[in-house]
Design brief:
The complex is a heterodimer of chains A (164) and B (413).
Chain A: H1 8-143, H2 147-163
Chain B: H1 2-23, H2 33-41, E1 46-49, E2 52-58, E3 60-64, E4 70-74, E5 79-86, E6 91-98, E7 101-105, E8 108-113, E9 125-129, H3 132-141, E10 155-158, E11 161-167, E12 169-170, H4 175-201, H5 208-229, H6 233-255, H7 269-286, H8 289-296, H9 310-351, H10 356-400, H11 404-412
Antiparallel strand pairs in B: 1-2, 3-4, 3-12, 5-6, 7-8, 8-9, 9-11, 10-11
The chains are: A mainly alpha (164), B alpha+beta (413).
Chain lengths: 164, 413
């Protein structure tokens, strides 16, 4: 049967064609395709791994950011509180200082008033004593025109000294 | 929907037309089933053109004459289109009839012919005229009533006149050889276009057709080669992948009825023989110590191998039966598929003799069945290419397998 007897010409050409096909594809075809497919698979694997890691990092970063924000908020609140405290303190101090100053001013004023009062008093007294001495001198002068009277007065003075 | 029907109708008519065109060819309206089947399964010096049984695409004939000289000529020289009187239809029609191609080289005449009545029917032979005495002697041997159909070994019979024939050493680019080149070129083009895509686009994955091709490569490489051969996969992958895609392309091209396809390549034993021999060579060359030990000194009771080398004979026989099975499996499957489709179509002409109604029914039934068979053949094309690759991989892996770890495992257990 012709169908079951291989024809030499066809065997020859098949051999040539197959060898050529094999050489061309083994040199420029299959290794490139296999390398490419495996390289791409590796890249995808790496990409997936990288994405997973990145997500993990992102999660942890988000956590730490949350923490930092929380801390910052707490610190801010504290600072605000402190500022408020400081403000009231400063006001308080200012008030105190002002009142102190006022007091001092008042006191100084008082002192100066007192001083001037005393001076005035002293002056007044001096004036009064001068007037009274003058008056007394005049009176004494008018009264001590006789000796009896002078004796009487001296006695009375002596009595008084003795009594004392 | 209507578009689909239109396409289907056109395809159906394309399928039906060539056969109806040549159904009128036979004198008595009878179709020579066997000749038709073998003509379509076999090789040829020209390539059939759709809708015509007369004209063929001429292909180069490369032959060596008896005295060792080489000749290259067009296959169109071997036949001539001539008017033939058809007594049945009562009119003449064109038909390709074989003629003797006469050429001269170094002052000597050479005659080439493609005989029909000869032991080398259909092949190019060199003819030599014989003396009258020999002709008379041969005529005397003829017992048939019709001398023009008498086949005498070593002689070509042309309308009752005998010529001594020499079957040329034949390296012609026949229909199958050209189809082979087309298939190889197609595979190279597909593979290299994918490589070019990679070069252009880097690690970008290909889409559509190229993506599908890459999927197939991955299916074979990861699914068959790598899982069987392991670390040795890159060494044998080029051969196995080449074999797979070459077989697949040849199978699928064989299913296309018109020009670039239609050659029954993988259903030809020469093609599958070469493929199987390749696998055999690779298996034998790369066989390691363990492989040859299994052949010549297998692990069986000593009486099976020592005085009488029973196991050795079986094993050595097995070395050859494995690739032979590869060869025959692919050949038989593909040839069977083609044969069934041709037979189903020929049923139309067989039933045509029983009248119009039977012919009509058989047209519908045959076409439905042959389309179903062709669809099945697409599946078979893929499966057979896959099976060839899978078995080749297994044979190679049996030859190169490292048994060291396995023995260690057994000892450890």
């Amino acid at each position: 049967m012709e169908l079951f007897t291989p024809d030499f010409g066809l065997v020859f050409w098949m051999f040539i064609a197959f060898i050529l096909l094999f050489l061309i594809l083994a040199k420029w075809g299959w290794p490139m395709i296999i390398k490419q497919m495996e390289g791409r698979a590796d890249t995808i694997d790496k990409g997936v791994e990288y994405a997973r890691e990145a997500k993990e990092q992102l999660d942890s970063a988000r956590d730490s950011a949350q923490k930092v924000i929380g801390e910052a908020q707490a610190r801010q609140a504290e600072m605000l509180r402190e500022a408020a405290k400081m403000k009231s303190q400063i006001i308080e101090e200012a008030k105190k200082e002002a009142s102190e100053e006022a007091r001092k001013v008042m006191e100084a004023a008082k002192v100066s008033i007192e001083q001037s009062r005393k001076e005035a008093e002293l002056q007044f007294r001096n004036e009064v004593s001068k007037f009274s001495i003058d008056i007394a001198e005049k009176m004494v002068r008018s009264r001590l025109q006789n000796d009896a009277e002078q004796q009487k007065l001296v006695d009375k003075m002596l009595d008084e000294i003795e009594k004392n | 929907m209507t578009k689909k029907f239109a396409i289907l109708f056109v395809l159906l008519s394309v399928l039906a037309f060539p056969f109806s065109a040549f159904s009128s060819e036979k004198d008595k309206g009878q179709v020579d089933v066997k000749e038709n089947i073998f003509h379509h399964l076999g090789d040829g010096y020209g390539w059939e053109v759709p809708f015509s049984h007369t004209y063929r695409i001429p292909l180069p004939v490369i032959v060596r004459a008896e005295d060792g000289k080489w000749f290259v000529f067009s296959s169109s020289r071997l036949s001539q289109i001539s008017e033939v009187q058809d007594p049945e239809a009562g009119k003449s029609r064109k038909e390709a009839v074989p003629v003797i191609y006469k050429t001269e080289k170094d002052g000597k005449d050479y005659l080439f012919y493609q005989p029909h009545v000869s032991t080398h029917s259909g092949k190019v032979v060199q003819l030599f005229p014989i003396p009258d005495a020999e002709q008379k002697k041969l005529e005397a041997e003829v017992t048939d009533s019709d001398i023009s159909h008498h086949v005498a070994p070593g002689y070509t019979n042309i309308d009752g006149k005998f010529w001594r024939e020499y079957r040329c050493f034949d390296l012609s680019i026949t229909k199958n050889v050209l189809a082979l080149f087309i298939a190889a070129a197609l595979v190279i083009w597909i593979v290299l276009s994918l490589v070019r895509f990679y070069a252009k686009h880097g690690y970008k994955a290909p889409r559509k057709g190229m993506g599908f091709f890459e999927l197939c490569v991955d299916f074979i490489y990861s699914g068959v080669i790598k899982s069987t051969l392991g670390a040795k996969a890159p060494k044998y992958a080029p051969y196995l992948l080449t074999a797979f895609f070459f077989i697949l392309t040849m199978n699928l091209l064989g299913l296309i009825v018109i020009f670039p396809g239609g050659a029954n390549l993988t259903g030809n034993i020469a093609i599958t023989l070469v493929l199987a021999v390749m696998t055999f060579i690779i298996t034998t060359v790369s066989g390691n110590k363990h492989y040859w030990k299994e052949v010549f000194w297998p692990d069986v009771p000593i009486w099976l191998k020592c005085p009488l080398p029973i196991m050795q004979v079986i094993e050595i026989f097995g070395l050859f039966t494995k690739p032979a099975a590869l060869c025959v499996r692919l050949f038989a499957n593909m040839m069977g598929g083609h044969m069934i489709v041709i037979t189903l179509v020929l049923l139309i002409f067989i039933f045509a003799a029983f009248g119009a109604a039977t012919a009509g029914v058989s047209v519908v039934v045959s076409l439905i069945f042959s389309i179903f068979m062709l669809a099945l053949d697409v599946l078979v094309s893929f499966i057979q290419a896959y099976v060839f690759t899978l078995l080749s991989t297994i044979f190679i892996s049996m030859a190169v397998e490292d048994h060291k770890e396995k023995h260690d495992e057994v000892k450890a257990a």
